[in-house]
Amino acid sequence: MVPGRDRPARSSRAERVAADIEREIINARLPVGAHLGRRSELMDRFGISPTVMNETLRILRDRELIKVKPGPGGGITVASAPPQVRLGALDLWFLPSNPHPLDLIEARLYLEFGLTKAAFERATRDDISAMREAMARMRASTDAREFFDAVLAFHGVVAAAAHIPVLEGMHKTVITSIRAVLSRVVFVRDHQPLLAHSLDVHDDIVAAIAVRDQRAFIDALNRHDQDLFGADDPDRTTDSPRRP
To answer: What SMART domains does this protein's entry cite (predicted)?
Structure first.
């Protein structure tokens, strides 16, 4: 066996097992300190070798999701709950990261606050056509992750319509960081009215930009923010920027 060829396969298997354990923590909303099992139990459960188990634990420790206590009475426990954020009709879970995922969301909202105002003043016909195409993608989305990606793409188009390259570049960097730590996206229960509201509001933003109707534009932005932001983390909550 060639050592260099065997290593990626073991790493890939470890990543999959780590992802399964992370999903279990998220789906069951396991609290900090919850017991996940002993090393031998997890190896039997997932059918993996000690080497793959070691790599799996390293991945989860690096993400600050687990603690490993050796000896009798020890085992693997949940170290931290993945940050959860609610955005309108969506619940999103993030891997722990630096900066905190809520800081990334806050940065995104404040950048979009200024960029959307600039887009209102500077958007060209081509920009408005691109916004309408992005809206069509949002309406065609069939699952939560696809819809969230379409929302990010829409706001990327609006950022480009501001024609401020430095701020657009900053917006792209923040979006890339959000994507890098996003682990799961689902629709909230009874999400359909919230989803319809979100689509209508985004449509109204584009329509107001297209005809340069400032009153309608401000109204649409205020409605966009009314129920946009929420978090399950009681120690770190953020308010979205408020429009005048």
So the answer is: FCD, HTH_GNTR
User: Is the confidence at residue 36, as pLDDT, over 60?
Assistant: yes
The predicted structure's pLDDT at residue 141:
95
CATH class of 84-231: mainly alpha
pLDDT tens-place string over residues 93-145: 887 778 888 889 889 989 999 999 999 999 999 999 999 999 999 999 999 99
Contact 195, 210 (CB under 8 A): no
> Which residue type does 84 have?
Q
> Structure pTM?
0.70
CATH of domain 3-78: 1.10.10.10
Mean pLDDT of the chain: 85
SS3 92: strand
d(CA 166, CA 149): 22
Six-digit token pair at 114?
């200024």
Q: What was the pLDDT predicted at 134? A: 98
Q: Tell me: pLDDT of 1 over 60.
A: no
Distance (Å, rounded) from C-alpha 135 to C-alpha 9? 40
Which residue type is seen at 153?
A
What are the boundaries of each domain within the chain? 3-78, 84-231
**Cα 66 from Cα 238, distance rounded (Å):** 26
Q: Count of alpha carbons within 13 Å of 14, Cβ hemisphere only?
A: 19
Q: What strand order describes the sheet that includes 35-37?
A: 35-37, 75-78, 66-69
- Contact criterion met (CB below 8 Å) for 59 and 11: no
